[in-house]
Every structure is written in C-alpha cells, then in structure tokens.
Amino acid sequence: MGSNATLTAADGHRLNAWRTGPEAATRGLVVVQEIFGVNSHMRTVCERFAAQGYAVVAPALFDRVQPGVELGYGQEDMVRGRALRAEVPESGTLADIDAAAAALAGRTLGIVGYCWGGTVAWWGATRTKHFRAACCWYGGGIAGTRTETPHCPVQMHFGEKDASIPMTDVEAIRAAQPGAEIFVYAGAGHGFGCDDRASFSKPDADLAQSRTLAFFAKHLA
After folding, report:
1. What is the CATH number of the domain that holds 161?
2. pLDDT 10s digits, 177-209
3. Is 129 exposed, middle or buried (0-12, 13-18, 19+ CB in 10 A)?
4. CA angle (45, 128, 3) in 5-degree steps
5. Helical ranges in the chain per DSSP H
6. What is the count of structural domains for the chain?
7. Can you give the pTM of this predicted structure?
8. How many Cα atoms occupy the beta-carbon half-sphere of 63 within 13 Å?
9. Active site residues
10. What is the residue range of 24's domain?
C-alpha cells in the first residue's frame, strides 16, 4: 500500500502526491487525476499499477488552488471539480507533472491519465520529453490540442456515448494523429473506467486496462 509524499515543482510550489509500488522498480508511471482530486478511486488505480510492478506517483494537481481536495462523483462534486480545474494554470499543471516525473528519476517512465488527466497525459507526451509512452483515458481537451506533436507513442480510450466527447472529436483526433492507438468502446459513456461512477462499465474498463498494460509493457520494456 502506498503513502502520501510531498513534491516540489521547479517554481517552488510544494504539492502532495500518492506514491506507491516497489522502489526497486525499473519502470515508473505518473498517474494523473480526474477533476475529483487524488481521491480513493485514484489511489486504487495507482495500487493496481503498483501490483503490476510499477513505481507510481500521482500528483495532487488541485493543490495549486486548494490542498487536500478529494471529491466524490455527485453533481455538486462535478461542479466544484470543474471550477477548481479552471483555476489551475496549464503551466502549473505541467510543472507538477515534471515534479512527479523527477520523483521517479532513474526509471523508464510512462504517463496515464483519466478525464482531465487524460488531456494532461496527452500534454505530457507533447509538451515534455520525460515519457516513453502516454495513455489517455477519455481526455476531453485532447481534441483542442490534437495537432501538437507527441514525443512518444500514445494510446487513447474513448466511450462511444460520452456526452462530453462527441465522436466527431474522436475522429478529428484520429485524423490528426494517425500514429496513435485509438480505441472506442461501443455504448460506453464518460468515466466508464471508474467503478465509483454510474457510468462504470466493467467489461470495457477491463479491456481498456488490459490494452493499457500491454501498451506500457511494450514501450517501457
């Protein structure tokens, strides 16, 4: 089981993070939160990757606005999460991703993110050079930055019935990034990989996770 850690970004900002997995691991993952903070679900996600032998760090990106945020998945939580996300500058987010990567120094690194974190994982691929592979689960902001150039292989997962990411966006991403692996899950909605959400779909989540693990096994070898 992991524990809380403190990271320091290049601009001096100190933030919390969940750190887990074997310290002797040669492969590491930065896990990027949804708009609900590094809550119990995100810690569970981290522990699942740790069980596969990865050293894992999940930075608390909301700490730049309000430390210690852990939200649930109700409507009020969603409204609050969106408001918090809007206050976090992209530059700060990237600085915190850099700090998480630095905490895993000496390992072959990947990045994986969910919801907002799916977009941030895409930025990790395009705006940094820390990572050998990036996996993005239902990142709503990817379409808006789809023409950026990734520095590593990228895999993406989308739900066909995601109300916030239309299939026209997914097709636009596919056209802009023909080298990316892009999977669409028939009938799945946004957040289909989160077992704390009403939209959870275990068959789709299991398939997406198996593809994610295979992707990282290939590119972080």
Report:
1. 3.40.50.1820
2. 999 999 999 999 999 999 999 999 999 999 999
3. exposed
4. 30
5. 40-50, 75-87, 90-103, 116-127, 167-176, 202-219
6. 1
7. 0.97
8. 24
9. 115, 162, 190
10. 3-219
